[in-house]
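Input structure tokens:
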């Protein structure tokens, strides 16, 4: 079962700090392509207003890969290269993917340095492999739908490159949450504490008013260190139970989801 790393006071507070409020616009998929343009437009889908209002808390922060979306890197990508996972790790550049996730290099530079021995990379083939492998983790879309129906504010909090746009194009995750915290936009990755501190700076809420869900215990522990409530994701059913125990009201409307 997911681990409760910090138990919040329930009910959660409902007022925003510093007299600010947030208004979330339509979560349309970003279309920018260059790193400088993405940085200028980041964070997506958020506008600040100075009038006093209330906000339903807690705010939910979701890791994406292997929490919301199946990560094709561990099985599909090694098969694409006709390698085992261990062989792929052995021959790939040790930092190129991390640099890509942080927006330091673009996909063309990734292709150039992906393999340490300089062999060519079929970039479009790799992207197609990744795209085909993206799917919702079992049961998670239904849970996100229920949380949305109950008016919970949800954000991605993910280490991922600009290819998150491919995920959005295929799965339309922005129906449920905003792509607010992406490493390729912020230039920071989990478990860097500075990445987590952007939540407080941007959303203007106390860390204890946020719940972070991730399949990596290391990332959950890092959230705990700055006061964010952490849940270790194992599967959607256990997450639903654990959120309920934290006082998160979740209704189910399977018929409505099936019709969408």
């Amino acid at each position: 079962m997911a681990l409760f790393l910090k138990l919040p006071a329930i009910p959660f507070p409902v007022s925003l700090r510093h007299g600010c409020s947030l208004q979330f616009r339509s979560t349309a998929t970003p279309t920018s392509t260059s790193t400088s343009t993405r940085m200028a437009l980041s964070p997506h889908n958020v506008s600040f207003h100075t009038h006093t209002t209330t906000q339903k808390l807690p705010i939910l922060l979701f890791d994406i890969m292997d929490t919301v979306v199946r990560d094709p890197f561990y099985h599909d990508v090694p098969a694409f290269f006709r390698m085992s996972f261990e062989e792929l790790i052995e021959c790939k550049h040790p930092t190129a993917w991390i640099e890509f996730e942080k927006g330091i290099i673009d996909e063309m530079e990734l292709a150039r340095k992906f393999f340490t021995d300089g062999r060519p990379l079929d970039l479009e083939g790799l992207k197609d492999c990744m795209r085909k492998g993206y799917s919702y983790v079992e049961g998670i879309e239904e849970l996100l739908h229920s949380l949305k129906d109950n008016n919970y504010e949800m954000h991605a909090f993910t280490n991922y490159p600009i290819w998150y746009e491919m995920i959005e194009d295929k799965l339309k995750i922005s129906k449920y949450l905003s792509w607010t915290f992406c490493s390729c936009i912020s230039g920071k990755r989990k478990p860097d504490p500075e990445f987590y501190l952007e939540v407080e700076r941007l959303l203007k809420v106390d860390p204890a008013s946020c719940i972070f869900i991730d399949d990596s215990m290391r990332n959950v522990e890092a959230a705990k260190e700055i006061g964010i409530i952490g849940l270790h994701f194992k599967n959607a059913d256990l997450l639903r139970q654990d959120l309920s125990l934290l006082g998160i009201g979740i209704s189910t409307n399977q018929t409505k989801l099936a019709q969408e």
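The chain is about 40% helix and 10% strand. The first helix runs from residue 35 to 41.
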